[in-house]
Write a structure and sequence with these properties.
The chain is an alpha+beta fold. The chain has a domain of 94 residues: Dinitrogenase iron-molybdenum cofactor biosynthesis domain (Nucleotidyltransferase, domain 5). 27% of the residues lie in helices and 14% in strands. It is built from four helices and five strands, in the order E-E-E-H-E-H-E-H-H. A hairpin with a 6-residue loop joins strand 2 and strand 3. The C terminus is likely disordered.
């Protein structure tokens, strides 16, 4: 199974595992695959719904500790394949070019990191310390002359 940004083998491996846009379940011998929509941020369903399909290998661009524990609890091996198309990642994992990932790539899940950031922001506001991290410093990424677009 590959966490993917798109629903084809040409799509890039997703940098975010738990809430990847798509999950591709691929037969590495035939390269036939099924594409499944990912799990939305507000969904309570877990990745286990995919892992119960006799999946042995999972390819990720990043993985947090809770997802890593869940994936490995199903007996799956995890492989890190950043910035490459799904097809290339599958071929590299199948040929043994990518080593087994022995621990999560992130120390905290994106959810807990986001929550901590929100708590820090709220504390700064409570203490009257400006607008929070990175706020009020320029016009934002991709903005030109105050007009939308990049």
């Amino acid at each position: 199974m590959v966490a993917s940004k798109g629903n084809t083998l040409d799509s890039k491996v997703s940098a975010r595992f738990g809430h990847s846009s798509y999950f591709l379940v691929i037969n590495p011998e035939t390269m036939e695959y099924d594409s499944f929509a990912g799990i939305a941020d507000d969904e309570s369903q877990h990745i286990g719904r995919f892992l119960s399909q006799d999946i042995k290998k999972v390819i990720v661009g990043n993985i947090g500790p809770s997802s890593y524990r869940e994936v490995t609890s199903y007996g799956c091996a995890v492989y890190l394949c950043r910035n490459m198309p799904v097809l290339e990642a599958v071929k590299k994992v199948t040929s043994g070019d990518i080593p087994l990932l022995k621990e999560p790539t992130l120390k905290k899940s994106i959810h807990s990191a986001r929550k901590e950031g929100q708590d820090e922001f709220r504390e700064e506001i409570r203490r009257g310390k400006g607008m929070g991290k990175g706020m009020g410093k320029g016009m934002g990424k991709g903005m030109k002359g105050g007009k939308g677009g990049g």
